[in-house]
Amino acid sequence: MDLYAWIKALHVISIIAWMAGMLYLPRLFVYHVDAEPGSRQSETFKIMERRLLKAIINPSMVAAWVFGLWLAYDSGFYTQGWFHAKFALVLLMSGVHGYLSRCVKTFARDENTRPAKFYRMLNEVPTVLMIGIVILVIVKPF
């Protein structure tokens, strides 16, 4: 049994789940903005956002970090320049994750003041970071 291959597979699975949630959550916010606070629709969005964050995004981020750090250590990639750049982008992605978590809490309190356009633009940030991360991992340009 090749443990490295299993850890890599679990890392990729974790990343896919994390990114799916990171791309979907801001889209929920876009629609939540138009729901009247306290309405049935707004309350449904709150449940969807909270469950997405707690059941999918948070656990998959933790798993991605654990498996990723294991791979970096086991492979020695942590000494390479492309990995340092990738690590910086993953830190930024984690910061976006934290910001989205804060947005979930803001919506839960009916205190959102941002327009749908803000969340449409925010929705692109994980995509751009993901593209950079994938290029660094696959191409290893430096």
UniProtKB/TrEMBL annotation:
Pathway(s) it belongs to: Porphyrin-containing compound metabolism; protoporphyrin-IX biosynthesis; protoporphyrin-IX from protoporphyrinogen-IX: step 1/1
GO CC, alphabetical: plasma membrane
Keyword Cell membrane: yes
Metal-binding among keywords: yes
Ranges that cross the membrane: 6-31, 52-73, 79-100, 121-139
GO biological process, one term: protoporphyrinogen IX biosynthetic process
Complex formation: Homodimer.
Protein name: Protoporphyrinogen IX oxidase
